[in-house]
Design brief:
By secondary structure, the chain is mainly alpha-helical. Among the domains are: about 1-45, no CATH class; about 140-275, Multidrug efflux transporter AcrB transmembrane domain (Multidrug efflux transporter AcrB transmembrane fold, Up-down Bundle), CATH 1.20.1640. It is about 55% helix and about 5% strand. The protein has helices at about 20, 80-95, 105-135, 140-150, 155-165, 170-200, 205-230, 240-270, 275-285, and strands at about 1-5, 10-15, 30-35, 40, 60, 65. The strands form three sheets. The protein has a two-stranded antiparallel ribbon. Strands 3-4 form a two-stranded antiparallel ribbon. A two-stranded antiparallel ribbon has the order 5-6. A hairpin with a 2-residue loop joins strand 5 and strand 6 (about 65). It starts with a strand and ends in a 14-residue tail after the last helix. Residues about 275-300 have low confidence and may be disordered.
Length: about 300
């Protein structure tokens, strides 16, 4: 009705019925509406009263009143279900009156925003990885060798997700990104070890074989430690797909890296298998004619 000012604060003065008139809803029709000259009329003469319900909270989206329809999905990813239902939703939206519409939100909207945020920084991340590999390896060809091992983890990811019927969603994609970094790290360690053996004077073939054997146990143990650390997360509803993706991908990628990378390194750099010194001496003793020398009897 008015405001009462006290110090620097304005206090609203609100009209309210007396207690006997507001304890019973039936008394509301007899509430007095005062007119000029002190006259009044009951509310029932100027209004039709009825008891009804209304929303206690009005939700708005972009300042537009909104009704949200929610559902729980079991055995599938919510974005996949939303995409499957989208044709029917679009057909329903076309039949709505003017001013009404249907917008898709929920997991699909959140996933799209999250993927957009990752894709925004992905070019900078790739450039940073390439620079670090180039600083470490000092060779574009070796950097390409390391990068070619990164997709090997997808074999294990696809196999384990298909075996356990786990949907490939946004969280599983995060696991694949982390998996690529682990595989690249193992490959870089192996390539650096081969370079160290070459600098020590070993032939190329021997350097590749010896480095692979020497780094076999550290790489495998590191991979197993990462896999065992992911086991508790497999029971999580949210982080489970990421844990399964890392476990399956890392196991397969580690084994393939120890076979694929040395073979590709030997092929690209033209390594040829060389016989060991003991093997060569044994061969010379068994076949002395292969030494290239001859015995000639000289006159006395």
């Amino acid at each position: 009705m008015t405001q009462y000012r006290e110090s620097d604060k304005d206090i609203d003065v609100v009209a309210r019925l007396i207690a006997p008139e507001r304890t019973d809803l039936n008394n509301l029709k007899d509430a007095k509406i005062y007119l000029r000259e002190g006259k009044f009329v009951p509310v029932s003469q100027v209004a039709r009263l009825s008891l009804d319900s209304e929303d206690s909270v009005l939700w708005r989206r972009n300042r537009v009143p909104t009704i949200t329809v929610r559902a729980d999905v079991a055995g599938a990813e919510a974005p996949d279900v939303t995409r499957a239902l989208k044709p029917g939703i679009d057909a329903l939206a076309q039949k709505l009156p003017l001013g009404y519409g249907i917008d898709v939100g929920g997991a699909l909207e959140s996933s799209s925003k999250a993927q957009a945020s990752i894709l925004a920084v992905m070019p900078l991340t790739i450039i940073a990885v390439l620079l670090l590999l180039m600083v470490q390896l000092q060779d574009i060809k070796k950097m390409a060798l390391v990068l070619l091992t990164a997709p090997l983890g997808l074999i294990g990811v696809a196999a384990i997700l298909a075996a356990f019927r786990i949907p490939f969603g946004f969280v599983a994609m995060l696991g694949v990104i982390a998996l690529a970094g682990m595989v690249i790290r193992n490959s870089a360690i192996l390539v650096v070890q081969i370079d160290h053996d070459l600098q020590a004077g070993l032939p190329l073939w021997n350097a590749i074989v010896e480095s692979t054997v020497r780094r076999l146990r550290p790489i495998v143990l590191t991979a197993l430690a990462a896999v065992l650390a992911m086991i508790p997360l497999t029971r999580s509803v949210f982080w489970g797909p990421m844990a399964w993706a890392i476990m399956g991908g890392l196991l397969v990628a580690t084994l393939l890296t120890l076979l694929f990378l040395p073979a590709l390194y030997a092929n690209w750099y033209g390594a040829r298998k060389t016989a060991r010194a003991s093997d060569r001496s044994a061969s010379l003793q068994a076949h002395p004619e292969h030494t290239g020398g001859h015995i000639q009897a000289l006159p006395a």
